[in-house]
């Protein structure tokens, strides 16, 4: 590390990722040596104060990196070029030899997992470059290591000299995906089910659903599965906290319904616009609760990267479709009210 007073406890290996955190003006910081949070001496903490700490196992989901290149030295390579024809014509002596030329390849190395130019920001002397026009991604193989390489290749029209500053910023190809949602439901028989909840497999009520209704009218029935009448397998949906099964579907109408199944309560009225979420067989997460959904670490059940970056069948199934955020604002306020008025201060629970 050049130009600083930082001395690593151990020398990082070649191509190792080094994370540097500036803590000079920090009110607190994390000390990895003993796994503690340390408060700055300039921050007053009165006796009896409540210290609340929120931690994240993997907050840098995008793995943003930036490299700065100055000049052309790192781009030069020597190439041996044969003379071609002899200097003297029709003589019996051999070729006089070969010469070496310096080739300037305006390609800048980045992580080999990123091959999408649109995910990379490039500037030359402060001027932003346009992907696929001013620069492209060139993939190759390192001659010495045999490993895959990725480089940002500038267009031939962009001139580079000894003082040119090129800044390249990119994210990992395994970046944060759209929100994912799943549900763990325990029924009255103590059975657990694990289902993916997706906006692509959900719709809303087209009109109020009353307790005496025999059909459910939804906005988009194509997002819900057809029941299998031959095998007697119904479609299953949740409306608010009520589990409902249906045995027929015609367009946007669900028929032959059974209300309040598996021990859930049937509300007298579900209002138009309430969510209708599919939890049928196609949403069942493979393996359920019998397997680990995360990628394993070297000595831990998880590597800490979370479901978004995991490669297990369960993680792939959950992240395959965009999730749906189910909150108090999306559930009828007349149901599942479990806090008595006046029990806590107003605004304590949202």
Give me the secondary-structure topology:
Blueprint: E1 28-31, E2 36-39, E3 65-70, E4 76-82, E5 98-104, E6 107-110, E7 120-124, E8 127-128, E9 135-141, E10 148-154, E11 165-170, E12 181-186, E13 192-197, E14 202-204, E15 209-210, E16 216-217, E17 235-239, E18 242-250, E19 253-258, E20 269-270, E21 275-278, H1 313-319
Antiparallel strand pairs: 1-2, 3-11, 4-5, 6-10, 7-8, 7-11, 9-10, 12-13, 14-21, 15-20, 16-19, 17-18, 17-21, 18-19
Number of helices: 1
Give the terminus-to-terminus CA distance. Answer: 48 Å
User: Tally of extended strands?
Assistant: 21
Beta-strand content bin: 25-35%
Would you identify the regions where 5 or more consecutive residues have pLDDT less than 50? none
| Structure classification | mainly beta
Q: Note the main sheet.
A: 6 strands, antiparallel
Spatial strand order of the main sheet: 14-21-17-18-19-16
What would you report as the Rg, rounded to the nearest angstrom? 31 Å
Average pLDDT reading: 81
Order of secondary-structure elements: EEEEEEEEEEEEEEEEEEEEEH
The total domain count is 2
Shape: extended
Q: Share of helix among residues?
A: under 10%
Can you walk me through this structure?
With 350 residues, the chain is mostly beta strands. The chain has two domains: 65-86 and 94-170, no CATH class; 177-333, no CATH class. Helices cover 2% and strands 30% of the residues. The chain is built from one helix and 21 strands. It has one helix at 313-319, and strands at 28-31, 36-39, 65-70, 76-82, 98-104, 107-110, 120-124, 127-128, 135-141, 148-154, 165-170, 181-186, 192-197, 202-204, 209-210, 216-217, 235-239, 242-250, 253-258, 269-270, 275-278. A six-stranded antiparallel sheet has the order 14-21-17-18-19-16, with no helix packed on it. Strand 1 (28-31) and strand 2 (36-39) form a beta hairpin. The longest helix has 7 residues, at 313-319. The chain is extended and about 80 Å long. The model has no long low-confidence stretch (mean pLDDT 81).
